[in-house]
Write a structure and sequence with these properties.
Layout lengths: L2 E11 L8 E5 L4 E5 L7 H16 L7 E6 L10 H8 L3 E7 L5 E2 L9 H13 L12 E4 L2 E4 L15 H5 L3 E2 L12 H8 L5 H8 L16 H18 L4 E2 L6
Parallel strand pairs: 1-4, 9-10
Antiparallel strand pairs: 1-2, 2-3, 3-5, 4-5, 6-7, 7-8
Helix pairs in contact: 1-6, 3-5, 6-7
The chain binds adenosine-5'-triphosphate and magnesium ion.
Length: about 250
């Protein structure tokens, strides 16, 4: 289970983030990047962060540790900015936090180089979860002491916005032409051979078990949070086997 902490102080908004993530301090004295249930697409974005973040971690990628952050909306009362106050007020209860990587640099495809092997693994993973938010304009990759970390998996698994059409939507191809790592000749075949067999039903059950019940309740068409967990696992399991052949728009490494 994800560690649970309670927010004790709102430090500052992170200006680059479209969803207005904030930096908070918690009761374990940790500093976290916090994403709020009251923001934009709401809790589905947070579910996507947990499913993709925890899956990526288990496949060997570097992802900041995820925690749940309990929020008492009174924390927002003293905030001078209306936008921040509204966000905190509408996000009482369980939110998402991730370890703040201090000293991280935003990845710039023109300034850093990435091996074809690593590029292949990341592009393959993004194709698996249908990540549309790792473009060269907005890479959502951080560099820490020469190592790449994956962040921001909120815009993935488009099928979870329309469950009745999920199987059809999950069978579509993935256009990687704008991907931040497209220029590094990603070795997709090698990544697929290594990673696809590891995406098993057992692994996906472990990953989806990490989603807090509070974000799964009352989804139309599902009786229990566990039914919805299985619905998250299904398209990923189906996609893993064949997604390599469905990646388009990219010049593949050997
Ligand atoms: N764990 C972290 N450690 C350090 N900095 C972070 C971390 N997570 C996010 N950031 C910084 O905050 C910015 C916004 O975070 P993120 O991309 O997750 O938010 P978002 O609202 O989903 O953004 P987007 O505008 O891409 O949709 C990142 O670009 C990065 O600069
Ligand atoms: Mg981002």
């Amino acid at each position: 289970m994800l560690k649970e902490v309670i927010a004790t102080r709102y430090i500052t908004p992170l200006r680059e983030g479209g969803s207005l993530p904030g930096l908070v301090e918690a009761d374990d004295f940790g500093t976290y990047v916090m994403k709020f249930t009251g923001a934009g697409q709401g809790r589905k974005t947070l579910v996507a962060e947990v499913v993709c973040g925890e899956l990526a971690r288990r496949l060997g990628f570097r992802v900041p540790r995820l925690v749940t952050v309990g929020l008492d909306p009174v924390l927002g009362l003293g905030e001078p900015e209306q936008q921040v106050q509204d966000l905190l007020r509408s996000s009482g209860g369980t939110n998402l936090g991730m370890d703040f990587l201090s000293g991280a640099l935003g990845f710039d495809p023109l300034a850093f180089s990435v091996s074809p092997e690593e590029a292949g693994r990341i592009v393959w993973f993004d194709a698996l979860v249908n990540n549309v938010d790792r473009s060269w304009r907005n890479p959502n990759l951080l560099m820490v002491r020469g190592e790449l970390w994956l962040i921001d998996h909120g815009a993935t698994m488009i099928w979870h916005h329309n469950w009745p059409g999920a199987d059809t939507s999950a069978s579509r191809s993935y256009d990687a032409s704008d991907h931040a790592l497209a220029r590094f000749r990603p070795e997709l075949a090698r990544a697929a051979a290594e990673l696809a067999p590891r995406v098993t039903e057992e692994l996906l059950a472990e990953v989806t078990a990490e989603i807090p019940d509070a974000w799964l309740a009352d989804e139309p068409g599902f009786d229990t949070p566990d039914d919805l967990r299985r619905a998250y696992a299904r398209p990923l399991l189906a996609r893993a086997a064949a997604v390599h052949e469905r990646i388009t728009g990219i010049e593949e490494g050997k």
